[in-house]
Amino acid sequence: MYASNAHVIRRATEADAESLNRLADLTSQPPLEGRVLIAQIDGTTVAAVSVDDRRSLSDPGCFIGYLLPCLRARAEALIAYEAEPSLPVRIAAAVPQSYRPQASQQTEHAVKRGTTRRATGTDHRRPRVRTGSMAGSGALAPPTRW
C-alpha cells in the first residue's frame, strides 16, 4: 500500500521537456508528444503516459509498479471527460442495457407506488416520539411501552 501523497500526477508542461527526454533516453524509445501526464516522486519525473497515443515511459531504475496503472487510469478519465463532461451521463452509458428499466415499466412502478400510498392514506414510517427535556433539543427518545 502506498500513501496517496507519495507521488504527484499532473499534466506535463514545456518545462518538463528535459525530464521527458531523459525518460526516453533511459528506455531507448522516442519521446512522448502531445498531451502527456507525468508522475513525480520527490520532484523527479519517474513515469509518463501520452494521453493521445497511450504510450508510456518509466524509469527502469525506480520501482514504480503502482504508478503506471494510476497514470493510465487518469489518462482514460481525461479522455472520458472530454467525450462527455456530465458524470451522470457517463455512468448511465456504462450500465449495460439489460440492467436498465424500460421507460414504461419505470413509470408504471412509480405511479403504482404513489397512488397506493395516497389511496390508502397510510404512512408506514415509524412515528417520532419526544419526551421530557429532550423535546427542545431535537433528539429522539425511544418510545415508552408500559
Describe the structure.
- The protein is of the alpha+beta class.
- The chain has a domain at 8-83: Aminopeptidase (3-Layer(aba) Sandwich).
- Helices cover 37% and strands 14% of the residues.
- β3 (44-50) and β4 form a beta hairpin.
- The relative contact order is 0.09.
Topology:
Elements: E1 8-11, H1 17-27, E2 36-41, E3 44-50, E4 56-58, H2 67-83, H3 87-94, H4 103-120
Antiparallel strand pairs: 1-2, 2-3, 3-4
Q: Main attributes?
A:
single chain; 146 residues; alpha+beta; Aminopeptidase; four-stranded antiparallel β-sheet; 4 strands; 14% strand
Quick overview of this protein structure:
The protein is of the alpha+beta class.
Tally of DSSP helical segments:
4
What share of the residues lie within helices? 25-40%
Integer-rounded radius of gyration: 28 Å
Structural class, from helix and strand content?
A: alpha+beta
How would the global form be characterised? elongated
Mean pLDDT: 78
Question: How much of the residues is beta strand, in percent?
Answer: 5-15%
Gap between N and C termini: 54 Å
Low-pLDDT segments: 115-119
Assign the CATH superfamily of the domain at 8-83: Gcn5-related N-acetyltransferase (GNAT)
CATH architect. name of the domain at 8-83: 3-Layer(aba) Sandwich
For the biggest β-sheet, the strand order reads 1-2-3-4
